[in-house]
Amino acid sequence: MANRRNKKLIWQLPFLTLLIIGTILIIRHQRNMPYQRCTGTIFGTVYNITYQHDGDLLPEIVVKMHEVDSALSMFNESSVISRINRNQDVTPNKMFLDVFNQAQQISHDTDGAFDITVAPLVNLWGFGFTHNEEPSQHVVDSIMQYIGYQKVSFDGKRIRKSDPRIMLDCSAIAKGYGVDVVAQLLEKAGVENYLVEIGGEIISRGVSDKRVPWKIGVNKPVDDPQGSNELQTVLNVTDKAMATSGNYRNFYYKGGKKYAHTIDPATGHPVQHNILSATVLADQCAKADAYATSFMVMGLERAKKVLEKNPDLMAYLIYDDNGENKVWYSPSLKDKIQQ
Question: How far apart are the C-alpha atoms of 215 and 192, rounded to whole Å?
């Protein structure tokens, strides 16, 4: 019996040896595989993509990003969303519907803090296509009549509006969605190590070219339209998506009062609460992108309640406490904070 077992082991040894050698060769090949880097502009912002692969995937990446642009860019006159905003008869494509449906779900989850119909108010306050004087309450009220995510729906063929003046704006979720689309393309190509960043929205997998987890800094919320490089903290974002929203870049002062670009759909006015910056980590970048904006609208306490309902989300919130910047973060984020 023992003799037979020994013979079986002898026959198995060559196969085990081949398996070990094959594994070593695969690992060595992966370690020697180059990291590709590409940068450019899309959606009116800059993208930076790093991925480990033998070939150049940039042509396919650019095609995918332009597909997202053709569905969701308000600055592309022929895009699906632009045609819907002009009340043209258009059948929305899958990319548009993916974002529309997710936006509506997040709007419901945040009690309307996230709302893709808020564009006319953004323009009214001087943060969109136009720059106006501070609007009167009467003008705000007149526009509020056609603001609200409940006033748009998809009937299976078309986007229906309760008022033709309704304008959709997916800018608070579209960049994140673009990041997700590129990440999906890389994974289909067999890429295991990558970082995709579009306009500050990020997703990563695996390790960097230094064979360490991907780490991303969170800027201090310093009022600086040009952007400050001073870091508040550094997060390990490996195998996660990350998005940050803040009122320290896009703002203006008038009459000694600060007007930030985040508009509260419930009041029609720029938010005035104490959150300065909201960073959200999630499995999908579109989701992180939208909730980061939502938390800027909701304020600290309401944001905490939403996080309690969504354990898959993690947040790093910087807020003002009587002139002093303080931080609150999800307990589950503690192990990802590097400094």
Answer: 17
The CA distance from 245 to 261, in Å, is 10
Of the candidates 301, 179, 299, the one whose C-alpha atom is nearest the C-alpha of residue 240 is: 179
Question: Which pair of structure tokens corresponds to residue 337?
Answer: 């904070």
Say how far apart CA 331 and CA 40 lie, in whole Å: 36
Whether the CB-CB separation of 208 and 236 falls below 8 Å is answered with no
Cβ partners under 8 Å of residue 78, min gap 6: 70
Alpha helices in the chain (DSSP H): 2-32, 58-72, 80-85, 94-109, 119-124, 137-144, 171-188, 285-298, 300-309
CA pair distance 117, 216, nearest whole angstrom? 31
Residue 63 pLDDT > 60:
yes
DSSP summary character for residue 277? E
Print burial letters for 156-191: b (CB count within 10 Å at least 16), e (below 16).
Answer: eeebebeeeebbbbbbbbbbbbbbbbbbebbeeeeb
- pTM (predicted TM-score): 0.86
User: Strand, helix or coil at 104?
Assistant: helix
Report pLDDT for 275: 85
Mean pLDDT value across the chain: 86
Tens digits of residue pLDDT in 108-127: 999 999 999 998 998 887 76
Structure tokens at 36: 């590709």
Nearest in space to 180 (alpha carbons), one of 240, 116, 134: 240
DSSP per-residue letters across 184-232: HHHHHTT--SEEEEETTEEEEESB-TTSSB-EEEEE-----TT----EE
Q: How far apart (Å, rounded) are the C-alpha atoms in residues 198 and 65?
A: 10
Q: Sort 12 into a burial class: Cβ within 10 Å, 0-12 / 13-18 / 19+.
A: exposed
pLDDT tier, 309 (very low <50, low <70, confident <90, very high otherwise): very high
> Which residues are CB-neighbours of 310 under 8 A, at least 6 positions away?
109, 291
Which residue in this structure is represented by tokens 């033709």? 164
Predicted confidence at residue 273, as pLDDT, reads 77
- Tokens for 178? 């673009």
The pLDDT tens digits for 219-263 are: 888 755 555 578 889 999 999 999 999 865 544 445 444 445 688
